[in-house]
Amino acid sequence: MLSFVSFLQSGNVIAFMLLFFRFGGLFMTAPIFSHTTIPMKLKVAMAFFFSVIFFDSVPPLSIPVTIPSIVLAVLSELLFGLVIGLALQIAYNVITFAGGIISFMMGFSMATAIDPQNGVSMPIVSQFLSLLALMVLFSLNLHHWLILYIDKSLHHIPLGGFLMTAHIIRYTLHAAGHMFLVGFLIAFPIIALSLLADLIFGMLMKTMPQFNLLVIGFPIKIAVSFVVLIATLASIMILLKEEVVSAFNALELFF
Hints:
Layout: H1 2-8, H2 12-29, H3 40-53, H4 67-106, E1 112-114, E2 121-123, H5 124-139, H6 142-153, H7 166-207, H8 213-249
Antiparallel strand pairs: 1-2
């Protein structure tokens, strides 16, 4: 009882609160943890649970115990978790961006459904690839990596000591541009075949005016696109895996 009272009278309470916000910011934005099907109460409970588990790893508090410094420290911890989640979400959204291009080239841009990952409407091909990508993240044990990363960060970034530096901003901007490039590369085989099919159909319509593009051409184009998508699906997931691993390794820049 006395040890518990002494715990409440020290800076440990503030350290525990800052650790809770560090985990909370991560769970709000990081892939897997930020899934909209996970209730907010469960995310808060997980943040509290991991704060209790890893509290022994917290170094002594280095900020003054004043209201302004505590407010700034809380914002710093939330920003740290949000930036980590943003960096990984950019790598994960490569597959969503590529799925949107593929859906447009296949003529499925109007066929949308609610994505359970983000809670927004997206083309069905994007949703299909997004769910497969989520399973790839589980196979990588990304959720374990993130928890261990937070534990490691406690020894490099003191609680309330995270600052948004110029190289972190440059990396985020570079990663966002790289997302569009890799997404286009993933969708390029279907883009190329769709353009080739359009060219062939145009030639057929010139030589055979009775050729009905809507009745014959579109089903053939969709079937060819599905064949190419199935043939390249394994390569797409491998490329996504490399992007996520690269993004996670780049989180060392934050230290």
